[in-house]
Amino acid sequence: LLSVGKLAERGLNVEFQRSSCVIWGNASAIALGKKIGKAYMLDCDQEEARFVEYAGADSQWELWHARMGHPNKDALAKTQRATNGIPDVGQAFPTLCGGCMKGKRTVEAFPKRSKTKTSRVLELVHTDVMGLMKSTSKGGAKYILTFVDDFSRYVVAYFLKKKCEVASKLKEFMRFYEKQWDERLMCLRSDNGTEFVNKDVTRICT
User: Fold this and answer.
1) Pairing between β-strand 20-25 and β-strand 28-36 as defined by DSSP bridges
2) Domain of 40?
3) What is the pLDDT of residues 148-158, one digit of tens each?
4) DSSP character string of 116-129
5) Which residue has the higher pLDDT, 134 or 154?
6) 30 and 101 share a domain?
7) Distance of alpha carbon 123 from its chain centroid, rounded?
8) In a domain, 8, yes or no
9) pTM passes above 0.70
10) Strand order in the sheet with 143-149
11) Is 170 buried (19+), middle (13-18) or exposed (0-12) by CB count in 10 A?
12) Distance between start and end Cα atoms, the chain
């Protein structure tokens, strides 16, 4: 998150256009960005952009706000009055805090319904493992592996003693239902747990 005001204090100019923006310094462009939704995103690596923020503390309020764990203005003022050692940070309106914006921003919720639309069986199958169960079955199973066909909503469940049995049960599921429905499994969707992301499952799916 970049503050235009802080960039201006550093002698930089920001030019906004309908779908892009440019940061100028010494008559040359030093950064480019494009508009995504209602925000302008800099053109740089995702990992690098995640940690881009203005870290300078140019006031006593900003300094003690950071030291005390980013409380709001009123909470910091009450702490100053109730303790010794914290100077009077004043009542000036605080500047934009990059740490607060990054830590308190909301995350977009997952959609309640998938936007993927299938047109036949086995085009997309959802799978997951439930367990470790509190009670063991008579056969010694402690986990339940489920397969849900997205198109028909047909559900198949297997009881497992160990998670490492997932690959063999996936192979059994594919062999039986591909033959019964005369279709090939095209996409398997999981939560990317290690029971699904491994060499055995990859070998079966390729």
Assistant:
1) antiparallel
2) 1-54
3) 999 999 999 99
4) ----STTSSEEEEE
5) 154
6) no
7) 26
8) yes
9) no
10) 155-160, 143-149, 125-130, 188-189
11) buried
12) 41
